[in-house]
Amino acid sequence: MSKHTLGAYPHMLGFEQLERLLERTAKTGNEGYPPFNIEQTSDFSYRITLAVAGFAEDDLSITVEDRQLVIRGRQSDDSEGRVFLHRGIAARQFQRSFVLADGVDVGEAAMENGLLHVDLTRAKPETVVQTIQIKKG
After folding, report:
1. What is the CATH code for 31-77+87-124?
2. Over the stretch 64-100, which tens digit does the pLDDT of each residue have?
3. Burial class (CB in 10 A: 0-12, 13-18, 19+), 117
4. What letter does residue 49 receive in the DSSP assignment?
5. 73, 74, 123, 121: which is closest to 97 by C-alpha?
6. For the chain, what are the domain ranges?
């Protein structure tokens, strides 16, 4: 089976950046931790919710880097002097990345009951009609 690229479709001009974006998204290396939900909260807004039980607000960072929302978590190891008979709750770090389309902005972030909510908004697209004049040769 051959791989089709957007360049293989001559009527789709200027979508090379979209193809690079799709390739980058496939390489983000996101594991299954922490689990997350993405919900559409209105026609032009979304919410990403990550299950970050055990993390405090200071353990988390949220950045936008090159149209990519990056959420990182790093817990401090407070197990010194403690003896665990079983340790099923690991203090591990994570990084989750979400590629944002042009016009999508990151709004507020809030913690609630071990869940981190990050709200996104998408600008309402404008309809643009442009008439191109034809020069006489």
Report:
1. 2.60.40.790
2. 988 899 999 998 777 788 898 998 876 789 999 998 9
3. middle
4. E
5. 73
6. 31-77+87-124
What stretches in the chain show pLDDT beneath 50?
A: none
> Whole-prediction pTM value?
0.73
The predicted pLDDT at position 72 comes to: 96
Looking at the DSSP bridge assignments, the partners of residue 109 are 118
Q: How far apart are CA 100 and CA 56, in angstroms?
A: 25
Identify the residue whose tokens are 């957007």. Answer: 6
- The sign of the dihedral angle between the CA atoms of 15, 97, 24, 1 is negative
